[in-house]
Automatic annotation (TrEMBL):
One of its GO terms (molecular function) is D-sorbitol dehydrogenase (acceptor) activity. Pfam families: adh_short_C2. Belongs to the short-chain dehydrogenases/reductases (SDR) family. The keyword GTP-binding does not apply. Keywords: Oxidoreductase. This is Sorbitol dehydrogenase. InterPro entries: KR_dom, NAD(P)-bd_dom_sf, Sc_DH/Rdtase_CS, SDR_fam. Its EC number is 1.1.99.21. Residues 8-199 form the Ketoreductase domain.
């Protein structure tokens, strides 16, 4: 059986661990060449092992997505090594939370700088590269969240940032349709990534819970009965990047165990 992403070159941001690393692994297994970016100056231990396993089809480029000149350099270096970028997995994001009346401007600026401004301009610059390169079958996958589907009292800025991603996905899909470039999103539910240690600690602080209790509760509340694993996002990410999804654009797919129903 042929690999589903042969001849694709995927650029993945926020890919040193968690969902980004899981998707990069799946893309490589499906035959793609991958350029992965994250803010760390050196690759994580997990990513280093992946680089050793795929030395000819994977590279890591440290990038701060809030710095436009670094994004430009990322796209240039990616295409110089592996050719035109055909797929963007737009995943870099941060999380923070506080009661609405205590949430300050600094928190707002941090979250929106990465999750909205950074994500938008990474998408815009990669799309411009795809158009200039006359990429056939280009695909962008923006990472939203179930948090972008609703408000949460303690998580107002993060929810708003992910709602913005869903909206930008729709607008970009319409703008890129004449170029036959598809733009879709994925909205994960509660996924057991390393970031959840910090999320759980914040909920423990603001909801007066024991450490680990929030994580247990949200997992049990999922209709399928448990939190997701980063690998649970890989099927959707591979499908949306592949030619099998050639007639799908402007959609944000929930991968959340049934938490949100469209």
């Amino acid at each position: 059986m042929s690999l589903r992403l042969t001849h694709k070159h995927a650029l993945l941001t926020g890919a040193a661990g968690g969902i980004g690393l899981a998707v990069a692994t799946a893309y490589l297994q499906q035959g793609a060449r991958c350029t992965v970016a994250d803010i760390g100056k050196t690759a994580s231990a997990e990513l280093t092992r992946l680089l050793q396993a795929y030395p000819d089809s994977l590279q890591y480029l440290p990038t701060d997505v809030t710095r436009p000149e670094q994004v430009d350099a990322l796209i240039h270096a990616a295409s110089a090594r592996f050719g035109a970028i055909t797929t963007l997995f737009n995943n870099a994001a941060i999380f923070d939370m506080a009661p609405l009346l205590e949430s300050d401007e600094a928190m707002y600026d941090r979250i929106f700088a990465v999750n909205v401004k950074g994500a938008f301009f990474v998408m815009q610059k990669v799309l411009a590269h795809m158009v200039a390169s006359q990429v056939q079958g280009g695909a962008v996958i923006n990472m939203a969240s179930q948090a972008g589907r609703r408000g949460e009292a303690l998580v107002s800025h993060y929810c708003a940032s992910k709602a913005a991603i869903i909206s930008y996905t729709q607008s970009a899909a319409l703008a890129m349709a004449p170029h036959r470039i598809r733009v879709n999103g994925i909205a994960p539910g509660v996924i057991a990534t390393p970031m959840w240690k910090d999320v759980d600690a914040l909920f423990a602080k603001y909801e007066n819970l024991p450490i680990g209790e929030k994580k247990r509760r949200v997992g049990e509340a999922v209709p399928l009965g448990h939190m997701g694993d980063p690998t649970d996002l890989c099927g959707a990410a591979v499908f949306l990047a592949s030619d099998e999804a050639s007639y799908i654009t402007a959609q944000t797919l929930n991968v959340d165990g049934g938490n949100v129903m469209n």
